[in-house]
TrEMBL record:
Gene that produces this protein: rlmD
Protein's recorded name: 23S rRNA (Uracil(1939)-C(5))-methyltransferase RlmD
Presence of keyword Metal-binding: no
Domain TRAM: 1-59
Origin organism lineage: Bacteria, Pseudomonadati, Balneolota, Balneolia, Balneolales
Active site: 425
Length: 468
């Protein structure tokens, strides 16, 4: 039954991990992306595992009540927004239920209260950075694939990689994630390169020239950066392109050229040159300003980062005598935001570059009650550091998707911190960690915040207090 390749009709009953719709056939789960509860669909089974199947949506026979028409023509193929076909209120409801499911199933917490998800005022065009790829082969549309004749996919393709395919680029015509000027700039670069015989990067043979176009814009100011990532250092190509861009789009405030001659498909070059303007943009989070260069980390949804930080600040309830720890502090944006009321704050972070930026950010904002320590949390955070900086009255932890190392969790338990705030971009690992902390700390409140509308990702802030 339901072998790979079988075509079948299914009714979607719920939503599972990564936002895929779930149907049940004789008790067996079938996961189908691009579907929503209540949809009656025709699907092809693409993966047959012992306990589940995966399917590909072929046709929606009857639409579920929460299905809407995606805004973007690329929505079903592109990896950028997997949830554009779901009405935004339902996205928020689902995200809350996903946190509940993880807390119950993984954390073992029953009947837990979870606040309604804080939604994004602007569920489209919310990103302040897009990293577009350039390739020599484009992704074909389903109609082209199903045609009986050969379709040549070689071209100057500019857009986004289809999930799991790094050799082909979806040649996008529009995008609803960043301000519309972003894809207009991309379109201009594509046309200019085609007209001037500038070759796209060939991922297989490691040849060609143009690799990425990265666009960063500021939310609070009018700064706009275009970063042209190329395989070679050739100012005869890139300088006239930069001039043409600035002439066409007076909104551009700086143009950078990152030269990446490595095979690694990153948009971070071995070195960079400033072609126009100051070489960075500036933005704010709350009242703190940040100088953001082409490769600096910065929260990608500025407005919603402020919402998230406000929740963390409220839950931290910092008092003037408090020593605060900010674990996994990145470039110190949250640390600065929280430093205002604290006696002192220590940020700890693995990345050397991020720590250097955190120190610079503190200096340029005249914040002198913060300190930053570089190192792997598992080894740095513990008795030694608390002897040096004092025991924390309040601790914020914002780990990567993998959550915290068990030794870090154990140290937090040993420290018995009066006020604890856990910020998480992955509620399943957060639930796992909170379960290990449940003998020492009580969960007082859980707040999901939607940083990435049109995707299944959800950020959650947990307020924890030491048990009496
Ligand atoms: C979710 S981000 C934190 C973002 C930051 N709090 C902010 O608001 O911008 C997680 C951070 O953890 C850092 N990180 C990852 N593994 C780490 C480790 N083993 N030790 C210390 N920091 C680590 C990453 O470099 C990253 O900056």
């Amino acid at each position: 039954m339901l072998k790979k390749g079988t075509e079948t009709e299914l009714t979607i009953e719920g939503v599972a991990f990564e936002g895929k719709g779930i149907a049940k056939v004789d008790g067996l789960a079938v996961f189908v992306p691009n579907t929503t509860p209540g949809d009656r669909i025709r699907a092809r089974i693409t993966k047959s595992k012992k306990n589940y199947r995966e399917g590909k949506l072929l046709e929606v026979l009857e639409e579920g009540p929460r299905r809407i028409e995606p805004k973007c023509q690329h929505a079903r193929v592109c990896g950028g927004c997997s949830w554009q076909h779901v009405d935004y209120d339902y996205q928020l409801e689902f995200k809350k239920e996903q946190v509940r499911d993880h807390m119950e199933r993984i954390g073992g917490f029953d009947n837990i209260d979870i606040n309604d998800t804080i939604g994004c005022d602007q569920p489209f065009y919310y990103r302040n950075k897009m990293e577009y790829s350039i390739g020599h082969r484009r992704w074909l549309s389903p109609e082209e694939i199903n045609r009986d004749e050969y379709v040549d996919d070689h071209c100057f393709a500019a857009g986004l990689h289809v999930p799991g395919r790094f050799d082909k680029v979806l040649n996008i015509q529009d995008c609803h994630l960043q301000h519309p000027i972003s894809y207009k700039i991309l379109d201009f670069v594509r046309t200019w390169c085609i007209n001037h015989d500038v070759p796209p990067y060939d991922t297989i043979d490691h040849k060609g020239y143009m690799r990425n176009v990265v666009i960063r814009n500021s939310y609070h100011t009018d700064d706009l950066m275009v970063n042209l990532v190329t395989l070679k250092d050739d100012s005869e190509i890139v300088s006239p392109l930069s001039e043409a861009l600035v002439n066409e789009f007076p909104e551009i405030t700086t143009v950078i050229n990152n030269i990446n001659d490595r095979k690694n498909p990153t948009a971070v070059g071995r070195y960079e040159k400033v072609l126009y303007g100051p070489g960075y943009i500036t933005d704010r989070i709350g009242s703190y300003h940040f100088k953001i260069d082409a490769n600096a980390f910065f929260q990608t949804n500025t407005r919603q980062a402020e919402e998230l930080y406000e929740v963390a600040k409220k839950y931290a309830d910092i008092q003037p005598d408090d020593t605060v720890y900010d674990l996994y502090c990145g470039v110190g944006t949250l640390s600065l935001f929280l430093s205002e009321k604290a006696k002192n704050l220590l940020g700890i972070e693995l990345s050397n570059v991020a720590i250097k930026n955190a120190r610079k950010n503190a200096e340029s904002n005249d914040v002198d009650n913060v300190d930053f320590q570089q190192g792997d949390m598992q080894h740095v955070f513990g008795e030694l550091i608390t002897k040096k900086y004092g025991a924390p009255d309040c601790l914020i932890t914002d780990p990567p998707r993998a959550g915290m190392h068990p030794d870090v969790v154990e140290n937090i338990n040993k420290l018995k911190v009066p006020k604890l705030v856990y910020v998480s971009c992955n509620s399943s690992t957060m639930a796992r960690d909170l379960e290990k902390m449940s003998e020492v700390y009580d969960i007082e409140e859980l707040q999901p915040v939607d940083m990435f509308p049109q995707t299944y990702h959800i950020e959650t802030v947990a307020k924890l207090r030491l048990k009496n």
